[in-house]
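task queued by scheduler; priority normal; single chain, no ligands, no partner chains; default sampling; output format set to C-alpha cells
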Amino acid sequence: MNENRPFEVLEIVDDMRHIRFPDGEEAYVGMELSDDEILIEKSYNDSRDYDAELEEAYNVYLDSMTDEERYDHEHGVTRIQKKREYDEDVGFFSSVCIQDVHKNPDGSTLIEETEQEVYVTPDGSVYYLEDMGPICDFYEKHKDNIESHEEIMTRKQRCDEAFNELKRHEELYNLEQVSFICAYITHTMEQFMESHELDKLHNNAKIWTVNPLTQFDAVQLRSNHLSKEDLKHLGYNVGKFLKLKGENIALFIKNVFAESFGTVQVGTIIAKLADRNPGKDRILLLSAKEMNYLFEHYKRYKTINLDIIPKRLAEEDVKTKNRSS
C-alpha cells in the first residue's frame, strides 16, 4: 500500500487512515482524500503560524470578557459555586412550569410551557415573584413586631445573592450556546440564503433556545440546491445540540422551511429526521456528541471547523481500543 506513496500508511481505522510523513509527522485522514489533497493540507498546516493564531484567539477571548471576568482574570480570582446549608426554617427559590394548552383546528395540540420563578416557604407554600412585592410591603409595615428581623434579612440577602449568581452563570452559558448556533448556521447556510433571510434564521434559532414551541418566521432559500434531507439535517443537528425531542425539531423544520415542508405532516418529518442521502448530502447529519465537539472547539477558537469531528472521533476510538487492550 506504501509503494510510490509520499507517506506511509500505518493502519486503517474504520474509514480513516493513520499515516506517517517522511518528516515523522503522523495524522489521521479520510479514505476519500487523494494523495495530492493530503499533501496540500499538510503544506497548509506546516505554513500556519499556530503561535500567532493562538495569540489572536486568546486576545479575542479577552475582548469577550465582562468587566468582572476581566478583573478576575487579571487578579487571579477564581469563583466557585458553593451551596449553602440552611436551617429547616428557611425556604428557597425554585421555578415551576406553567402550561398553556391550545387545541388547533387540525386536531393537534400546542402546549406552551413557561418557566416562572417562585419562592417556597418551609411549610411548602409557593409564592410567585410577582407576589413578593405586596408581601415585602406588608413586612416593612410590621417588621418592628417580627422577631429575628436581622437574621431573616441576612438569610434573604444571601439567598438573593446566590440566586442572582446562579442566573448570571446560566445566562453566560446560554449566550455562548446562542453564539455557537448562529455561527454554525452561518457557516452552513450563508451560501444558500440572502443575508436578510439568514438574519431571520438566526432569530428563529435564538428564540428556539428558550421556547421550542413558539411560532417561527418562515425563511426563503436562494436556490433549490438543498434537498429536504439537508434541511432536516440542519434542524436535527441544532435541535439535538439543544437536547430537544424529535417533535420539537420537526415543528421547527416545518414552520421555518415552510416552502419545502408546508404539505408534509409533522409525523412524516419525525420518522425521517435521520434519513441520509450518501454522496448527495450537502449538510452532514451530526450527532449530539459531534455537535458538542464543534461547540468545544468554537468556545476556544471562535470558528466552526467540521474537520475537528473525524479527528475527535478517531482519537476517542484509539483511546477506547487502548483501554480494552
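post-processing summary
- The CA atoms of residues 40 and 46 lie 10 Å apart.
- The mean pLDDT is 83.
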